[in-house]
């Protein structure tokens, strides 16, 4: 099984993932936009048992940003490292981490809130898939 490593911007926090991510894509929600300072946020989703902080866990600060999300970031450099989704049993590792995982997005989430329209042929969901409590409704590009 493949192991992938990644670090925050300053290298104080190191993570390791095993196997392949469950899914990859883009989130257009207001929370992700504000948190990232970008018009969209790229994610990779993993099961918690696939993710391990191997260095600097005490440097990971966190805050609960919604009923679904606990955002974790390096308190030295401010880099966004992961978002825990305990109600979904998933961990979102920012797509810039881990190293050597080819980013192959499959979906755009919360596209109803977008401020940057993307024409890439991928499904654009109004909110989330029905499997995780969303409407599953697709929107046009």
Q: What structural class do the secondary elements suggest?
A: mainly beta
Strand content: 35-45%
Mean pLDDT: 95
The number of helical runs is: 1
Shape: globular
Intertermini distance: 36 Å
Question: Secondary-structure element sequence?
Answer: EEEHEEEEEEEEE
- Biggest sheet, in brief? 7 strands, mixed
Structure, described:
With 141 residues, this protein is mainly beta. The protein has one domain: Metal Binding Protein, Guanine Nucleotide Exchange Factor, Chain A (Beta Complex). It contains one helix and twelve strands, in the order E-E-E-H-E-E-E-E-E-E-E-E-E. It has a seven-stranded mixed β-sheet with strand order 6-7-8-9-4-3-10. It is globular and about 40 Å long. The model has no long low-confidence stretch (mean pLDDT 95).
In short:
The chain is mainly β and 141 residues long.
Topology:
Layout: E1 3-7, E2 14-18, E3 23-27, H1 30-36, E4 41-46, E5 51-55, E6 60-64, E7 70-74, E8 80-85, E9 90-94, E10 107-109, E11 124-125, E12 138-139
């Amino acid at each position: 099984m493949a192991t992938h490593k990644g670090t925050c911007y300053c290298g104080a926090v190191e993570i390791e993932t095993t196997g392949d991510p469950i899914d990859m894509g883009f989130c257009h929600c207001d929370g992700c936009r504000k948190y990232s300072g970008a018009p969209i946020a790229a994610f990779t989703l993993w099961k918690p048992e696939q993710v391990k902080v191997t260095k600097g866990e005490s440097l990971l600060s966190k805050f609960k940003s919604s009923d679904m999300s606990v955002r974790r970031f390096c308190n030295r450099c401010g880099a966004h490292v992961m978002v825990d989704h305990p109600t979904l049993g998933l961990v979102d590792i920012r797509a810039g981490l881990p190293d050597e995982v080819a980013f192959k997005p499959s979906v755009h989430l919360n596209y109803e809130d977008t401020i940057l329209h993307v024409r890439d042929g991928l499904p654009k969901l109004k909110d989330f898939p029905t499997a995780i409590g969303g409407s599953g409704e697709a929107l046009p590009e």
